[in-house]
Write a structure and sequence with these properties.
The protein has 451 residues and is α+β, with helices and mostly antiparallel strands. The chain is built from 12 helices and 15 strands. The protein has a 6-stranded mixed β-sheet with strand order 5-6-7-2-13-12, with helices on both faces. Strands 8-15-14-11-9-10 form a 6-stranded mixed β-sheet, with helices on both faces. Strands 1-4-3 form a 3-stranded antiparallel β-sheet, with helices on one face. Helix 8 packs across helix 9. The radius of gyration is 22 Å and the shape is globular.
């Protein structure tokens, strides 16, 4: 048994039927040329045959002292692989729409806390011959960036590499020092608070006076900022990196600025369509990973949070891009001047208010801390393969909470950016229309900057 870090414990304590707290991913593969109809079955058989599990994949919440839960981990050394890794098939005609409907149902259900907190589904039956792998892991177990990197290490840039590497069996990189326990980390953190507080306060005060940082609770209340139900709807689509890079170069901004403005335009279209566009701009929370490369497999959560003005009240896409870029530049400058602990403290201020959503009446009576999360996760820049099957799409699917009915997460994947949208099925009607609006928004930006 080992103590949990407080951030990991919060994800378990805050979970309910309406608020599953896992992160997921839908990967779409094209079998290698000449593969027969038994390829997916053989792929699955080779996957489940690997039962040498790394510790992260054996963790489940422990109870002690007569029932105290969610404060420590225990390990399941008799894991039932057939429960955790399942093979499914789509009904005819096997459309991508059918795949997303199944994914939405799988993403809605809670993970069993009596077992290690992860599941994987190998899904066949698409009419074009492709197959998919949907995975989900509890946010208390691992953050989204680490989960994505772990899955990517299962793949290979070599199309002739037919080895099936299970993510749960991958060896961790060697570490130079023995990792500390959560308790010792907490002691160091407590000491760091007292030592770093004066500089944190003074820097934050300076940032506020210079209006360089966006603070929570300045966002307008929208149809996206309501109490949510437990059912989810997922949507996914890919866009060419080159199209977005062309806008980036022409406008002299970052690629992430273009992505955020692309999302901003799509949200503007969608909210106008619903007669629900507020007069003041939406604010997005943009996660930034504070994890160093050697910490990719350490488990737990190490994520900062920047708030960005999306300028959804501005009709001109070029001006909207300027405002988004300026907002991100100012906020990132503040973060760049902070040591990692202080950056986490500022992030906690940005995100911590979400915990208040559980207070009765809070969501309906207060302004939201921000309107939605938009996360851009770095991924591989080369084409990858899994047992010879080409990775066509890698769509991240995140968790949503009360007051935050929509999440947009994207990951770079070779020549594409793969967008995964997760929404409350009840609160965000016609979620799939946001995909068409993303395309329209990108076209608007291309015209505005002359590409």
């Amino acid at each position: 048994m080992e103590l949990m870090m407080p951030t990991d414990s919060v994800f378990l304590l805050g979970e309910s039927r309406e608020h599953p707290m896992h992160v997921g991913g839908l990967a779409l593969y094209e079998p290698p040329a000449g593969a027969d109809q038994g390829f997916v079955r053989e792929f699955y058989d080779q996957l489940v045959a690997q039962q040498d599990f790394q510790p992260t994949f054996l963790k489940r919440p422990a109870t002690f002292f007569g029932g105290i839960a969610n404060l420590a981990w225990t390990y399941d050394n008799d894991l039932d692989i057939d429960y955790h890794v399942r093979r499914s098939a789509l009904p005819s005609p096997g459309r991508v729409r059918d795949l997303l409907e199944l994914t939405s149902l799988l993403h809605s259900s809670l993970l069993d806390r009596h077992r290690p907190l992860w599941e994987a589904y190998v899904i066949e039956g698409l009419k074009d011959g492709r197959f998919a792998v949907y995975t989900k892991m509890h946010h208390a177990l691992i953050d989204g960036v680490s989960a994505l990197k772990l899955m990517q290490r299962s793949l290979s840039p070599d199309p002739d590499d037919r080895e099936i590497r299970a993510p749960w069996g991958l060896l961790k990189p060697k570490r130079k020092s023995v990792p500390s326990s959560p308790l010792s980390s907490l002691k160091r953190t407590a000491g760091g608070v007292a030592a770093l507080a004066p500089s944190t306060v003074s820097l934050a005060r300076a940032a506020l006076f210079e209006q360089r940082v966006t603070l929570p609770f300045g966002a307008p209340r929208t149809m996206l900022n309501v109490k949510i139900g437990g059912a989810r709807r997922c949507a996914a689509q890919s866009w060419s990196v080159d199209r977005i890079k062309n806008v980036k170069k022409a406008a002299g901004v970052t690629l992430n600025d273009v992505v955020l403005t692309m999302c901003s335009g799509a949200l503007r279209y969608y909210l106008l369509e619903q007669n629900a566009l507020p007069d003041t701009p939406l604010v997005a929370m943009v996660p930034v990973s504070l994890r160093k490369e050697h910490e990719a497999d350490a488990g737990g959560n190490l994520v900062g949070a920047i708030l960005c003005n999306l300028a959804t009240d501005i009709e001109d896409p070029a001006r909207r891009l300027e405002i988004v870029s300026e907002s991100m530049r100012n906020n990132k400058q503040v973060f760049s001047e902070l040591p990692r602990f202080q950056a986490l403290a500022l992030s906690a201020m940005n995100m911590g208010s979400l915990a208040l959503a559980a207070v009765p009446g809070w969501v309906s009576s207060t302004s939201p801390p921000f309107n939605l999360v938009i996360s851009n996760v770095p991924g591989p820049h080369e084409q990858l393969y899994y047992g010879g099957a080409r990775l066509d799409g890698s769509y991240p699917l995140s968790a949503i909470v009360d007051g935050q009915a929509l999440n947009i997460t994207l990951v770079s994947n070779g020549a594409n950016l793969d967008f995964g949208l997760t929404g409350c099925r009840r609160s965000v009607p016609h979620l799939q229309r946001l995909l068409a609006h993303l395309e329209s928004s990108l076209k608007d930006l291309e015209r505005a900057v002359g590409v």
